Amino acid sequence: MSRRVLIGLLVFVLFGFRAFYATGQAATGNTPSDFIRYLGDQAITVLQLPGLTLEQRETRFRDLLATGFDMEFIGRFVMGNDWRKASPEQRADYLDLFNEYVLRAYSARFGGYAGERLNVVAERPAGQQDVLVTTRIDRPSGPPINADWRVRVIEDQYRIIDVMVEGISMVMTQRSEFASVINKSGVDGLIEILRARNDKLGATACAYGCWPPPA
Questions:
Q1: How do residues 133-190 score in pLDDT, each as one tens digit?
Q2: Is residue 20 part of a domain?
Q3: Contact 191, 94 (CB under 8 A)
Q4: Is residue 131 a contact partner of residue 151, using CB atoms and an 8 Å limit?
Q5: What is the pLDDT of residues 6-38, one digit of tens each?
Q6: Among the four residues 41, 127, 170, 181, which has the most C-beta atoms within 10 Å?
């Protein structure tokens, strides 16, 4: 599954986060399926709002990505066992750079919406803390795409901590990519690569994918 498709799915769902929070609907009293279904409905409305410039849409997406995903959890997880080996200074630098990298790289891909609709199929427990919400993305121009959203309650709000498209995990893929860089260049090498990428990556710098970096 291409990174372009995955990012398109993230964009499609994430535009609903602000509207969901604005209603005052906390995690209590709503199911994870309600949460994802609501986001899908709101995404269609927000993505079709007229009069917004490219920069305004990207800014809204950056805000939603920053609040909708548990970025600290994802950042620590994708660093794997090397997180425990890193110094406090390395951890702080890495998390700051990782968050900015994701925000910049992913916000540039928001424009892939083309009439997709998200349908919730099922939900099931995933471990002791999480729920996996299974969805089907119906597309006018192609076959449906199956996606699972791993949802966790954090501070009384649902947060997405992973997305699996046709069985391929976003965080596991990123973890494998980061491990390859760390094995070759160490934690400082990963930090420097992220810093260099952030310096070069503008709001619309990458059309379909910027990671892994060129050899």
A1: 999 888 787 888 888 989 998 888 888 899 888 888 888 988 999 999 999 999 999 9
A2: yes
A3: yes
A4: yes
A5: 555 555 555 444 444 444 444 445 888 988 887
A6: 170
State how many domains the chain has.
1
Strands ordered across the beta sheet of 142-154? 117-126, 130-139, 142-154, 157-165, 168-169
Q: What is the CATH number of the domain that holds 115?
A: 3.10.450.710
DSSP strand pairing (168-169 vs 157-165): antiparallel
Do residues 174 and 76 lie in contact, with contact meaning Cβ atoms separated by under 8 Å?
A: no
DSSP classification of residue 213: P
In the chain, how long is the greatest CA-to-CA distance? 49
pTM of this structure: 0.72
- For residue 134, the surrounding DSSP H or E stretch is strand 130-139
